[in-house]
Amino acid sequence: MPRKFVILQKDFNLFDLINYVSFYELQCKKVNFNETTLAVASVHVVEASDGMDYEQLKIKSYKHWDLYLHENQCYLGRVFLLLKNDEGVEDFLAIEGEVRDEFFQIGAEVKMALKTLFQPDRINYIAQSNTSPKIHMHLVPRYKDSREFAGIVFKDIRWGSNYAPYDHSFVLEKSILFQIRDAVKKKLS
Fold first, then answer.
1. Claim to verify: residue 41 and residue 126 sit in the same structural domain
2. How is 3-36 classified by DSSP, letter by letter?
3. What CA–CA distance (Å, rounded) separates 137 from 126?
4. C-alpha angle 182-127-164 in degrees, rounded to nearest 5
5. Orientation angle between helical segments 97-118 and 174-188, nearest 10 degrees
6. Domain limits at 179?
7. What confidence score (pLDDT) does residue 52 get?
8. What is the CATH number of the domain that holds 125?
9. Of 102, 182, 95, whose CA–CA distance to 135 is shortest?
10. What average pLDDT does range 79-96 have in this prediction?
11. What number of other Cβ atoms are within 10 A of residue 27's Cβ?
12. Are 92 and 41 within one domain?
């Protein structure tokens, strides 16, 4: 079910907004752009839906972490690890003991699976928690040259730069997302 939220009259940094709209479609009546600011004029009630039940993109569940395929695959094989219980954990650096050990074990396994499947030239690790307060880490494969999977060509247009802002318009059919999910899942079995 779509969530509703209100956008008040406010100026947004364009780069923050680009990250924000990665999961949401904003429907505004009047938008003014300049080089770095997006001004949203007037108040709007906007329905938000990321269009995907992330449980469908779950690759594997571990004792403390769940591994998901990210809905936007402009970086082929992009996944994230979500801490199941982050109560009392301030941020990523506060994870300890068995939880931290399991994270690094999973990270090494996922890295090997992604390298075997897609041969990334590098993997970026991102733990910002800007759009979600839950403790999670993105693993973003980066590619110097194009890769092909399921007949689709994936081109890392930001190679050599920060992964963001990334191409939010890159949308795959669910069947292709499920093929990528299943390929990673099979490598982790």
1. no
2. EEEEE-SEEEEHHHHHHHTTS-----S-EEE-SS
3. 6
4. 80
5. 110
6. 54-188
7. 66
8. 3.30.428.10
9. 95
10. 89
11. 11
12. no
